[in-house]
Write a sequence for this structure.
């Protein structure tokens, strides 16, 4: 059972070290899930004296006004031997054997956090005391409730202290040790009042009655101690602390405890209750109760920790890795993110992700339809054929076949294919740019760095523009090549009849009759259709080679080359992560470290059993 209290001690120390103080925040808190005993009382209620009696040492700061201005997590460890020493979490490896120095360090550490302005802070001080004369127990000493601000404190200090105390004791895992003086009306007790607000049934409140020996003659606290005046689910415990005179005379705790036992065993009113009175009984009772509460909470705590670890890991993955500080690390981070983007882009082109199929639609549908819409019949109308044939003959009509006329008619038709060819290049270019937008949006790491996101997009678009220009040149060259050199075999295979070759016995002017010109138009149309069929296959190949293939191979090559020449300041600008995201990641990493250590500690205790 002692392992359970030690376990919670370790977890509480880890919480403080990693910034989990149980305050409301956007981060999950482990502190609020840990069972703890919070000591609550008004000023001058004897709260400090109760704690010192439980420990058996003078170690708490004393004075007028508000002395306790930060929560003090007091962890008691029972050890063998006769050594007694204390350790602070903020001073690792330093042992205090002089408890007067412990008192001074508590005051100094309070001032380090709050300054000397008598402000309060919810950041706890962790103090561990190791002694053979204590029980294993953890108590949280909270600032004393007050009704008036002292000089040097803001008027809000009264409400601030109450809010801090309430924030601790309103949690269902908190056991409340409500300290009230017996020489005051219990109805006016600050501790009972605030405890009743957060624990109206008294299920997790222990009542401690101090200054019983200072009550007016003829009065006693039996009704309170037996639970008749104010009933709690847990028993009331009366204690007799050292008087101020005893403190001034340095009366040691051993003598004070002996006198406390004698008081309850010899005073007629309390003799029948003496077996459950006194600071020694209080410590043992609290230790036993804390152990039982911890044991009942362990399964739920394990489940909470496992669930929270998964949630923290998910969010950290979403936020991405932290940024490197050196130039090499920054460059590596940028390159890795760019490679992720490039990989996603290729997946779109290769069909792993949607989008690449639109390019095939251009080749299989848009481009062929655009060619079919070309109105070759206008170029091959009778009047146009006659005009071009006649002009090509010049002052001397052709002798056998109008070769120059054929060339001009074919060229006038093929030139019109340039339009659909350019449109196909532009259509594929638009699709490739659209896929860049998709890949950028699907690259989670780019969302982390807005400037890098813009730069990668611009670099990709510039590369695609260069590829488009090169593709357009090569694609139009294919059309121009068909114009510059005709396929001779096509004409050789034509029937060499009188009509085709011309009849030299006919008049020259007969060769320009409608029938003859119509046959020329038909021949040219057949040749143009053959060329269109060829270009319908070769132009998509050129586009894929110059644009799609190059986009897969070298989309960001120019960007990478330019990136290598940048200085660290320029690289840092690319990795301009939102400061809020950076802070969130740091806090999540600390909280994840806390929960993982908690998981390991709990598992270790479970296996040891």
């Amino acid at each position: 059972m002692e392992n359970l209290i030690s376990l919670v001690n370790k977890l509480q120390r880890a919480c403080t070290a990693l910034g989990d103080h149980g305050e409301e925040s956007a981060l999950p808190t482990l502190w609020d899930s840990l069972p703890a005993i919070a000591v609550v009382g008004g000023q001058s209620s004897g709260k400090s004296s109760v704690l010192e009696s439980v420990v058996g040492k003078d170690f708490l700061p004393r004075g007028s006004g508000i002395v306790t201005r930060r929560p003090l997590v007091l962890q008691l460890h029972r050890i063998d031997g006769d050594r007694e020493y204390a350790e602070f979490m903020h001073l690792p490896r330093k042992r205090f054997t002089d408890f007067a120095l412990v008192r001074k360090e508590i005051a100094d550490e309070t001032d380090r956090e709050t300054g000397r302005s008598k402000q309060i802070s919810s950041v706890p001080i962790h103090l561990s005391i190791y002694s053979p004369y204590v029980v294993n127990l953890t108590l949280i000493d909270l600032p004393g409730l007050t009704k008036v601000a002292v000089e040097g404190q803001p008027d809000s200090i009264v409400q601030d202290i109450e809010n801090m105390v309430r924030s601790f004791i309103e949690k269902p895992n908190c056991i409340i040790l409500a300290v009230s003086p017996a020489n005051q009306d219990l109805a006016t007790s600050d501790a009972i009042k605030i405890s009743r607000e957060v624990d109206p049934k008294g299920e997790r409140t222990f009542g401690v009655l101090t200054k019983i020996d200072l009550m007016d003659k003829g009065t006693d606290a039996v009704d309170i101690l037996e639970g008749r005046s104010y009933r709690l689910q847990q028993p009331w415990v009366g204690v007799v602390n050292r008087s101020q005179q005893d403190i001034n005379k340095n009366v040691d705790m051993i003598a004070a405890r002996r006198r406390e036992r004698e008081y309850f065993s010899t005073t007629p009113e309390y003799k029948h209750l003496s077996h459950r009175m006194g600071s020694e009984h209080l410590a043992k009772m609290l230790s036993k109760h804390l152990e039982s509460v911890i044991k009942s909470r362990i399964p739920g705590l394990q489940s909470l920790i496992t669930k929270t670890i998964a949630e923290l890991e998910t969010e950290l993955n979403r936020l991405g890795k932290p940024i490197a500080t050196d130039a090499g690390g920054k460059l590596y981070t940028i390159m890795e993110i760019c490679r992720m983007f490039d990989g996603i882009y290729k997946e779109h082109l290769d069909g792993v992700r949607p989008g690449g199929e639109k390019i095939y639609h251009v080749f299989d549908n848009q481009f062929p339809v655009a060619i079919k819409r070309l109105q070759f019949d206008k170029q091959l109308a009778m009047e146009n054929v006659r005009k071009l044939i006649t002009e090509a003959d010049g002052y001397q009509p052709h002798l056998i076949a109008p070769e120059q006329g054929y060339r001009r008619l074919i060229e006038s038709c093929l030139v019109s294919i340039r339009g659909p060819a350019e449109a196909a290049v532009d259509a594929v270019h638009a699709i490739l740019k659209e896929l860049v937008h998709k890949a950028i949006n699907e690259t989670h790491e780019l969302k982390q760095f807005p400037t890098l996101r813009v730069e990668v997009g611009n670099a990709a678009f510039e590369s695609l523009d260069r590829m488009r220009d090169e593709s357009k040149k090569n694609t139009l060259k294919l059309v121009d090549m068909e114009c510059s050199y005709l396929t001779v075999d096509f004409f050789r295979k034509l029937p060499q009849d009188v009509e085709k070759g011309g009849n030299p016995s006919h008049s020259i002017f007969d060769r320009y009759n409608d029938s003859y010109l119509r046959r020329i138009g038909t021949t040219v149309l057949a040749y143009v259709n053959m060329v269109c069929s060829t270009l319908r296959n070769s132009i998509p190949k050129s586009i894929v080679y110059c644009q799609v293939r190059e986009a897969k191979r070298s989309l960001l090559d120019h960007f990478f080359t330019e990136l290598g020449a940048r200085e660290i300041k320029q690289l840092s600008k690319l990795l301009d992560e939102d400061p809020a995201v950076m802070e969130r990641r740091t806090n999540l990493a600390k909280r994840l470290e806390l929960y993982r250590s908690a998981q390991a500690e709990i598992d270790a205790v479970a296996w040891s059993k």
